[in-house]
Design a protein that fits this description.
The glycine cleavage system is composed of four proteins: P, T, L and H. With about 400 residues, the protein is of the alpha+beta class. It has helices at about 15-20, 40-50, 70-80, 125-140, 175-180, 185-190, 235-245, 255-265, 300-310; strands at about 25-30, 35-40, 55, 65, 90-95, 105-115, 115-120, 155-160, 165-170, 195-205, 205-215, 225-230, 250, 315-325, 335-340, 340-350, 360-365, 375-380, 380-390. A hairpin with a 2-residue loop joins strand 18 and strand 19. It is globular.
């Protein structure tokens, strides 16, 4: 009799998995995590975020803390942006690139205190980014005079496995948050600007839950993201769900998150961003602090050369938005054509629930990237008309 070994279970569950299962969620694998794809109708979830509010579990995202007197200068070296310029309580979108300029990940960096930064990479790249930051810390410290003999001035801690992240997105998000914070913190919530964060407590009948509350999101709507310890995540989810009962709040999965971010023209790593693309091709050139940041940073030489060569502006390809002029949607990897000749490829695409026509993001040759250019998408052998338009496709009313 041949002895067999049971396969090792590699999928990961967030601290809120049981809550999702109880709500009848359909699950999908995302970066090794079993995440809710939808709870019922993905279109209803999309609509709720645009018109009322949606509740998301984003606990598959990574969280890496960089702390100490050298944290700011280290992040300036490790990432392409000038993170030392972030004010306490603010956040900044940035990229971590290879030496050749290829994008390892896009991420958000929060400056929680003068010497405390929280780096939030994407789920599928969380371990890669944490390891890359650790490797860059070694190189950074080796370049500091006497660093090995002095008191440590930089510490990195990967808190991804102990941290949950819950988001409330939509026009009613602020009203919902006001229903769970102390009255004395109400002004802090209403006054919180976009890409800002504050530490406060969510109130329960039998106590309080400390959170880092950030006014950020990935849907194109107003909204908040709340970082919380895993052990309190279920209580936080329940408190937010209860506070949202009178505001149209419903739980939302990754399907709605994807259609919302596409309408908002926001890139997804693995689709629009990859090691094969530079920030300039992706339309993220302003994120790279070539002029405003002194000193060396990883990828600087390659990125400077790419910019000088006109990458994404006069040479190569650039990321554009495509509006469908017909009824059929283009999907990822469909060829983009000009007069029957391939000039690009779709990276993301689907019908827009809000706008009522197909939308897509695609890389196309720069000579065909101007707004108003008519192109076709090859939809399995049939050319479907599209037009290059300005991004985002959807922009909320202030």
């Amino acid at each position: 009799m041949t002895e067999t070994t049971a396969p090792v279970r590699t999928e990961k569950h967030t601290a809120l998995y049981d809550q999702h299962a109880a709500l009848g969620a359909s699950f999908t694998d995302f970066g090794g995590w079993q995440m809710p794809l939808k709870y019922g109708s993905e279109l209803a979830e999309h609509k709720a975020v645009r018109e009322a509010a949606g509740l998301f579990d984003l606990s598959h995202m990574g969280e890496v803390w960089a702390t100490g007197p050298d944290a700011a200068s280290f992040l300036d070296y490790a990432l392409v942006g000038k993170l030392s310029a972030i004010a306490v309580g603010k956040a900044k979108y940035s990229l971590i690139c290879r030496e050749d300029g290829g994008i390892i990940d896009d991420l958000i960096v929060y400056r929680v205190a003068e010497d405390d930064f929280l780096v939030v990479p994407n789920a599928g790249n969380a371990a890669t980014v944490a390891a890359e930051l650790e490797s860059r810390r070694t190189a950074f410290e080796a370049a500091q005079d006497g660093a090995a003999e002095s008191k440590p001035r930089l510490a990195l801690r990967d808190a991804s496995e102990e941290t949950s992240l819950v988001a409330v997105q939509g026009p009613n998000a602020e009203a919902i948050l006001l229903g769970v914070v102390r009255s004395e913190d109400a002004e802090a919530v209403t006054g919180l600007k976009y890409y800002s964060g504050i530490e406060l407590e969510v109130q329960l009948e039998d106590g309080a839950i400390p959170v880092l509350l950030a006014r950020t999101g990935y849907t194109g709507e107003d909204g908040f993201e709340l970082f919380v310890a895993n052990g309190r995540a279920a209580e936080l989810w329940a408190a937010l769900a209860a506070a949202g009962e009178g505001h149209g709040l419903i739980p939302c999965g990754l399907a709605a998150r994807d259609s919302l971010r596409l309408e908002a023209g926001m890139p997804l790593y693995g689709n629009e961003l990859s090691l094969a693309r530079t920030p300039f091709e992706a339309g993220l050139g302003p994120v790279v602090a070539l002029k405003t940041k002194e000193g060396e940073f990883v990828g600087r030489s390659a990125l400077a050369a790419a910019k000088e060569a006109g990458a994404g502006t006069t040479t190569g390809q650039r990321l554009v938005g495509l509006k469908g002029l017909g009824r059929r949607a283009a999907r990822a990897h469909y060829p983009v054509l000009k007069d029957g000749v391939q000039v690009g490829e779709v990276t993301s695409g689907q019908p827009s629930p809000t706008l009522g026509y197909p939308v897509a993001l695609a890389y196309v040759d720069v000579e065909h990237s101007a707004v108003g250019t008519r192109l076709d998408a090859d939809l399995r052998g049939k050319a479907e008309p599209f037009e290059v338009v300005e991004l985002p496709f959807y922009k909320r009313q202030k």
